[in-house]
Write a structure and sequence with these properties.
Radius of gyration: 25 Å
Oligomer: single chain
Structural class: alpha/beta
Number of domains: 3
Shape: globular
Strand order of the largest sheet: 8-9-10-11-12-13-14
CATH topology of the largest domain: TIM Barrel
Largest sheet: 7 strands, parallel
Distance between the termini: 45 Å
Helix content: 40-55%
CATH class of the largest domain: Alpha Beta
CATH architecture of the largest domain: Alpha-Beta Barrel
Length: about 550
């Protein structure tokens, strides 16, 4: 059980207890545990209760519950509250922006116990009858519920990558003479996907005996089922046709239709290597990440395939948090972790003063942190820490420090964290004003989205990118695998307009630095090159 898995149990427990209006002190304690544990990169599941009690925010009771989860896979206290709550009501608690108080209001007031029932009630315009639910709130909730329904049956890339690689390793160990590779959306590094997929030359009957693989159906060339409880599709083929099949199963439907339309009379069967497919039609080999649409095909057929960004190209850790705000580790620990991973610098960007919920820095604490940065830079040279801040973009588009304070930072990431329910015009104007601020270096997670949880606020991406080009502002691709925002589909336009992209982990703990890899994978889908990435040199290219 991962730290994130453990943390989510405490979040669910807090929500259920709040729903049933239980002890507010315990609710606050469990919420704090969720916020702390999900950012911690120490292996909670393998720690003793005594070791757990030494962690910040973890007392004896919470340590016992973590140990219970790690050893039994369940938490008795949580199960008690689950039993008292209809399954559909528990599902409602997972809707972003629809908290326990509102869930209780619709449960008690309308008697709805499922998302389907709630949508029906909304379509009947019944929520406006409840206290605290106006027409605007009702319309917003409908959008959130529909987004939630569309997201069901999908997984983050990060979630499926680990079991996929473990399945691949199991196949290689069990059938060392066969050939096995990942395929499908996972191979294309799609940020979200519905299942993991593997291509193998092993026979269907043989693989059915693999541990953790549950087969639900088999055909001559196909096995369906689950691996470690995740949906899996295993394609089987002969060795002499492996390249042809890998090409077929890797590309999206849109890409494959475009490819076949471009070369309608070409036979792609009987090829052992995938590159031979491209060679056969005189096209340049196209990395899997670019095989989403005819855009990638055009690059391949016109010999314009870029040399894509690699993880090793990233030289600086930009966008990181420490114990100065809501991070798990100290500034020194974050800097040493970045240095020890081979990076040349760290841009520390703790939260600004408007982010009171994240222990944001007021002006006095900003200057105290700058003093620590100066001291550490003397000690850690040639590694360097840059003085940065993640400054909140307020509702009117201004940043939450006066100009004289902003001028003291070397890097200012301007981000939205509040008032997310704006119209597209209002949200766009808000960002445009922040971009025009002469102190803004980087526009952080431009839409504020959380993949499979919260749709980003609507913005006019073209106007935003054009404004960044005009004012010399960098755009962040937030590498947290639950964000990956800016969406990769806008990278080609940003590159066309000369707007650099910074691959930023938004690290709240030392282990979060490693999320840079997920950002690079997403950036590759948009064709990002080393030259177009802001943090690929040994120092940030500051004006």
């Amino acid at each position: 059980m991962t730290n994130v898995d453990i943390a989510r149990h405490f979040r669910e427990l807090a929500r259920l207890m709040e729903l049933h209006q239980d002890n507010p002190f315990k609710i606050r304690s469990y919420n704090n545990a969720y916020n702390k544990l999900r950012k911690d990169d120490r292996p909670l599941a393998s720690m003793t209760e005594e070791e757990l009690q030494q962690l910040d925010g973890v007392g004896k009771a919470i340590a016992g519950k973590i140990h219970e989860l790690a050893t039994t896979g369940a938490m008795a206290t949580l199960e008690k509250w689950r039993e008292q709550t209809p399954e559909g009501v528990r599902e409602m608690l997972n809707i972003s922006g629809f908290g326990p108080k509102k869930v209780k209001a619709v449960w008690d007031g309308l008697g709805v116990t499922s998302i389907g029932q709630l949508l029906y009630a909304i379509n009947e315009n019944r929520l406006v009858e409840l206290k605290g639910f106006g027409a605007k709130t009702q319309a917003s909730l409908k959008e959130k519920l529909e987004f939630h329904q569309r997201s069901q049956g999908q997984y983050h890339y990060r979630t499926l990558e680990k079991p996929a690689r473990e399945l691949l390793a199991a196949l290689k160990e069990a059938f060392p003479d066969a050939r096995h590779e990942l395929t499908g959306a996972l191979r294309r590094a799609c940020p979200t996907l519905t299942h993991l997929a593997v291509l193998t030359t092993a026979a269907p009957a043989a693989i059915a005996q693999l541990d953790n693989l549950v087969v639900s159906g088999q055909e001559e060339h196909l096995t369906r089922g689950s691996y470690q409880d995740y949906p899996v599709t295993i394609h089987h083929c002969a060795a002499e046709n492996f390249g042809s099949k890998q090409f077929r199963f890797t590309g999206s439907g849109e890409f494959l239709r475009a490819f076949i339309a471009a070369f309608p009379e070409t036979d792609f069967t009987g090829l052992t290597e995938e590159r031979a497919v491209f060679d056969k039609v005189g096209a340049t080999y196209l990395p899997p990440e670019l095989r989403e649409s005819d855009w990638g095909l055009n690059l391949s057929t016109t010999d314009r395939v870029p040399e894509l960004l690699e993880v090793t190209d990233i030289r600086g850790v930009v966008h990181s948090h420490s114990t100065w705000s809501d991070g798990i580790h100290s500034l020194r620990e974050m800097a040493e972790a970045a240095r020890d991973r081979g990076y040349a610098y760290l841009v520390i960007t703790d939260h600004s003063k408007a982010a009171f919920y994240a222990n944001g820095l007021d002006e006095g604490r900003v200057r105290e942190q700058w003093a620590e940065v100066d001291q550490l830079n003397e000690e850690l040279a040639p590694f360097r820490i840059y003085k940065g801040i993640e400054s909140d973009i307020l509702a009117d588009g201004s940043l939450d420090y006066p100009d004289e304070v902003l001028a003291g930072f070397e890097v200012v990431i301007a981000s939205v964290h509040s008032n997310l329910n704006m119209t597209e015009e209002s949200a766009t104007e808000r960002l445009l004003r922040a971009i025009a601020n002469p102190h803004t270096t980087i526009l952080g997670h431009p839409t504020g989205r959380l993949l499979l949880s919260r749709a980003g606020y609507p913005i006019d991406h073209t106007r935003i990118i054009d404004a960044c080009a005009e004012h010399g502002v960098v755009i962040e691709l937030n590498a947290n695998p639950y964000r990956l925002d800016l969406d990769w589909t806008w990278i080609p336009y940003a590159m066309e307009r000369g707007v650099p992209i910074s691959i930023n982990p938004d690290a709240h703990a030392m282990g979060g630095i490693d999320d840079i890899r997920f950002g690079v994978l997403a950036a590759r889908k948009g064709g990002l090159t080393k030259a177009a990435c802001w943090n690929t040199s040994d120092a940030p290219p500051l004006g």
